[in-house]
Amino acid sequence: MGSVARIILQRLVLGLLTLLVVSIVIFTAVNMLPGDFAQAILGQGATPEAVDAIRKDLGLDQPLVVRYFDWLAGALRGDMGSSFAQANFASFVGAEAGERVTVLDQIAPRFSNTMFLATVTAAIAVPISLFLGVLAALYRNSVFDRAANIFTLTSISSPEFFLAYILILFLAVLNPVLPSLSNIFEGMTFADRLEKTLLPALTLTLVVTAHMMRMTRAAIINLLASPYIEMARLKGISPMRVIVRHALPNALAPIINVVALNLAYLITGVVVIEVVFVYPGIGQLFVDSVKIRDIPVVQACCLIFAAAYILLNLMADILSILSNPRLRHPK
Amino acid sequence: MIFESPYDNVFGDLIEAFGVFAVILAVLALFTFAGFLLRGIGSAFDSRGETFDEMPLFLASLLAVLIVASLTLLWSAFIGGRDTLRFLILLIAAIAAFGWLFRWAGQRLTNNAPRFRDMPYGVSFGYVLAAVVLIWSVWFYFQPVVTEQGTPRASVVFFRWAIQGLLIAAVLGTGFKELGKRVGPGWSRKLFRTMPLTASFGILVIIAYAIVAIFAPLIAPYGQEQVLGAANVVPGGNPALGGNPEFPLGTDQIGRDILSRLIYGAQNTVGIAFATTLLAFFIGASLGFLAATLGGWLDQLVSRAVDVLMAIPSLIFALLLMTIASVWAPRLGIPLTVFMVVIIAVIDSTRVYRLARAVGLNIVVMDYIEAAKLRGEGLTYLIFKEILPNATAPLLAEFGLRFCFVFLTIAALSFLGVGIQPPLADWGTMVRDMAAFINFAPFAPQAAITPLLAAGAIALLTVAVNFVVDWMLHKSSGLKE
Q1: Which range marks the domain in which residue B123 is found?
Q2: Of the candidates B255, B287, B293, which has an alpha carbon nearest to the alpha carbon of residue B378?
């Protein structure tokens, strides 16, 4: 068990280190902007005194390194600064600090919405793709397998918004079964919320299922060539049983890996989908902030996306180590 | 609402009391426990003790989830009174029964022929399902396009278009394959004989796109920025429905011809994506080969930098950098598109670098590299004359995939409004601008098709490239089973 613990610890430290470097990259990238936040808030007609006042207020007169650590410490405390799309001159001069719209205020509700979308997607996509992957491996090279292959290739390679609009066309416009706009608000019932989330979740499911199913199929087929499967077949057990009892448990490591990687992929996919369905999630906030150059929000969203991405990749790594019996029971 | 769950109020109250995450965690824990219970009960009742004894816990939990989900659906259909759902459930049950009946009848009628005797239930279920889908498709295809009141039946129209599209694709693919089998030098004829239909269709599409992209100014009836008299002309060219035969696909909000913009879009979108991929390959492959040949600190430095860049999701990173570029671009007087090309090329070159380095590492240990080194050949010779020719095959397949990724990223960026900038005609932007037309689908199917045409143009090319790459990988890996 010692070696596993050491490997996992190594991965954890490496993941944290990566996150730290990524935060440096994001911070430096943002600071390559010409001018600074103070000028951006006040606009063209600002007096030098006002710019100086805000600069001092935001700590922009400090050197870059100090600012980075301030930002990082703030981020760790959950304080990402104040969004300057919502900020105006009045909130900086004369008003109390409490009136500022912080980045956290904007992100927090949207973050939980995005997590809800991702959870619903995962809850639909993971069982379906495992089931279909096993079926495709079972009936490989049959008509079903080929049709599934063409279908998954098509849905992987189509842009997400294409799939989204096709689904909107068929499930919201032509046959109005689901709403095409996901207006989520506080105090909805669970079923209401689920219904509003279902169409974006289904679109994401289409993309993610295709990946997961292909990889599950490949992982199982890879194993089917091994001698113990041959043995199981010679014993005369049914093909379904061979796969479920003998192949699947050993294919678990690659499959878990695939699931985690696809959840990581969801994070990127979520951006476009949220914009299409006007889903009030963090991806939409990110795109909106990019358009109006609300740098503190962009920075924070970027950090959150990167952190989630790294975390999921890390989880994939650790889970595949844990599910490898050769590492769990060293000789 | 298509379904209703008996847990509505329970969940609402719980989420209000404990928060979403606590509830999700609790549900997960509950299902894990249910799986544990299910496994225990199963192995107690299973006389042979095989199925449940060694079942992994996650499979048992999944089983529990499936049972609860299907019970909920049943509840919602038969007690909650959801008619569509009830119809679907009854349909599936009927297909399941007919699957069993089909196999049983087959066994009886053919005197237990091996084909039916050894048929798993899943296969016979599949046959019946396929038959039902086929019959329904034919029936639906021949439904009238217009209701008795004279309004169009959009579902039928779209269904016909989809089926016609599939049929045309199949015919074109087959035709091209047959042509390739008969015309051309020996090696290409042999290639076409073993090629699946999807791959020949893919090659045909790629050739067509290349021709359209190169000769766009000759093919397009109008210029891409040319504003013509009439705005918002409906596609179809039928004056009775608001069309105009001069603009077969209609015009957009400010009166530019959509067909011309689609054709120019091939030049802009595909051209820019192609240039970006080339740049990404130039950066990634040269750095990768350099790292593989030189090794040492250069390898370490570049590899770690690539690790960090790859830890940020690429679309997110591209969006972040585009924000910064959009501020710099007007100050420096460089078009934003140039920035986009460079940004995406750098981000995607990390993936190329990984592959090039891995392939290069396998090649540099070969004897002929050693021999070349002993001959005193320089680094340039080693990379371009020894490594590159031997790494072409994997790099070529990667080029196809990378092109798709770059193309989709650019399309996504343009769709989000920060990619290729107007007045250049671009498919991603066209989709975004015309997306609202989809809502006209029930009244005017022709009008709703425009955003889908642009999005479909993107999808068709990436699908085609993927079909070809899939076939190439399958051929070179020798995966048979």
Answers
A1: 84-141
A2: B293
